[in-house]
Design brief:
The structure is a homodimer of 278-residue chains. By secondary structure, chain A is of the alpha/beta class. The first copy, chain A, folds into two domains: 6-169, NAD(P)-binding Rossmann-like Domain (Rossmann fold, 3-Layer(aba) Sandwich), CATH 3.40.50.720; 174-276, 6-phosphogluconate dehydrogenase C-terminal like domain (6-phosphogluconate dehydrogenase C-terminal fold), CATH 1.10.3660.10. Chain A contains eleven helices and seven strands. Chain A has helices at residues 14-25, 37-45, 70-79, 81-85, 98-106, 149-161, 171-200, 210-216, 223-232, 234-257, 259-276, and strands at 6-10, 29-33, 62-66, 89-92, 112-117, 138-143, 165-168. In chain A, strand 4, helix 5 (98-106) and strand 5 form a beta-alpha-beta unit. In chain A, helix 10 (234-257) packs antiparallel against helix 11. The longest helix of chain A has 30 residues, at 171-200. At the A-B interface, helix 7, helix 8, helix 9, helix 10 and helix 11 of A face helix 7, helix 8, helix 9, helix 10 and helix 11 of B.
Chain lengths: 278, 278
């Protein structure tokens, strides 16, 4: 990024705050808006941002980043159409993109490129913001059909300046893959936690081993954000649940009928994990 | 434990090896058998055990611990009935106890107490053995109907000397609770890993965020051991899968019909986790 640039960020949570902190450290003039006045005061005091929207020099080039929950992002995009259209780059960081895409099409926003930094962790809020959050992480960039080359290059430079490696991917593939690798595990974790609580009538917390603790960590995720994501990526998530249930049923049949089939299934799982994750 | 005591351990893997290492350090005379000669040589050389079965003084009191996979344990119990009956204590450390219970009844083993140290981690084999593995961990003790008081006290002292806190629980409750809190998460993880590999056709490993890595860690678990566990605790595991699928279907319906219902479901999950785990 170049020092003379201006960035306007909507939403100074864990992601937005980390972007702001890192860009400001690079000397970029970062301005932000957040629902919480306390957050804005904290961010200015701690030199995470230079000021708010009112300090932005609209006569000079600027980029706009939304790091608000997806449904809020859509609302804000509608309310700030002109501001966005006049920007060099409009991007956002949510996990579910379909409605934003539609919105960009309807409003003929030609500088839109959707970004998904695969960098989430358990942190939340600006207190947890971290200049290194995006370092050596993947960022998926999804330009739309009408996105200008200039905006695509700009977005890539932005994420690279934050330390990320960029991958370009069309939005349908993005939504499909994320449904399987991120949204489905959350659906499972929420359902499992409910089942365990209902079924086992467990009074003694300590019975839960370390394995279960790790396995269910994501069931602590924010209801507001995840009900948004599930709503926005409904079709692909429901597809994923269906596919997962089929595998679960294969497993059920194996357990019922044959130890050696169960063993093979597990061995295949071991291999799949090695191939995909290790 | 008292210094004059003798312990015979079958199976010097991660659990058996850790028991041996800790007891030997306390000055107990520990002897062991293992399928692998290399493991025995290593254990003697590294003072994890004093010798093998042939070194055990059968004229003096001894306890027997099985840390072999559950199906192997059953086979070995049958082959060593007299040795076991003459022991002060017979215990084992597997995650699934039903067949061992039956076996103990059939063979009128009155010194049997089933132990389940909730202390597993990703380590495996004697190289990973650790004297502190059981410290501040729960050990579930399940005496059988005919188990003598003496054996129960003995088992409790054994685990306490390893640093564990003991909880007594009847075997049916043990199998039911473990099906929900340990076996079901494994079933899910194996199935999910298979689904992700099949469905998403992912060529780029780096797309998997840290969340998925933690969530699917247990899908790397040993096929031999887990097909045994699933086979031995079949009834309770199938019940758990059924119950979990019901919750998953509630989630499916919520996602399809109502964002606010989805949000409530997730909020309930958050609470359940807090109650049970945090």
């Amino acid at each position: 990024m170049e020092l003379k640039e201006q960035i306007l960020i909507f939403g100074l949570g864990h992601i937005g705050g980390s972007i702001a902190k890192s860009l400001c450290k690079q000397g970029i003039r970062v301005y932000a808006e957040d629902l919480s006045k306390k957050t804005i005061t904290y961010a200015i005091k701690n030199k995470i941002i230079k000021g708010t929207f009112s300090d932005l020099d609209l006569s000079k080039p600027y980029s706009v980043i939304f790091s608000t929950p997806p449904i809020v992002t859509n609302k804000l995009v509608n309310e700030n159409k002109d501001l966005i259209k006049n920007a060099v780059l409009f991007t956002e960081t949510s996990s579910s993109k379909n409605k934003i895409k539609k919105n960009a099409f309807i409003n003929k926003i030609e500088n839109a490129i959707l970004s998904h930094p695969i960098a989430g962790n358990e942190g939340s809020g600006i207190d947890a913001s971290d200049t290194k959050l995006f370092e050596n992480k993947i960022c998926i960039l999804s330009p739309l059909k009408m996105t200008s080359k200039n905006s695509t290059t700009k977005a890539q430079k932005l994420w690279e300046s934050l330390g990320s490696n960029c991958i370009k991917m069309d939005l349908n593939s993005h939504d499909k893959i994320l449904a399987a690798t991120s949204h489905l595990p959350h659906v499972i974790s929420f359902s499992l936690m409910r089942y365990i609580e209902k079924s086992s009538n467990i009074k003694n917390k300590v019975l839960m081993g370390g394995g279960l603790k790790d396995f269910t960590r994501i069931s602590s995720s924010d209801p507001e954000m995840w009900s948004d994501i599930f709503d926005l990526n409904k079709k692909e998530i429901l597809n994923s649940i269906k596919g997962f249930k089929k595998e679960l049923e294969v497993m059920e049949k194996n357990i019922l009928s044959s130890r050696s089939k169960t063993k093979n299934f597990i061995a295949e799982s071991n291999k799949a994990r090695k191939k995909i994750i290790d």
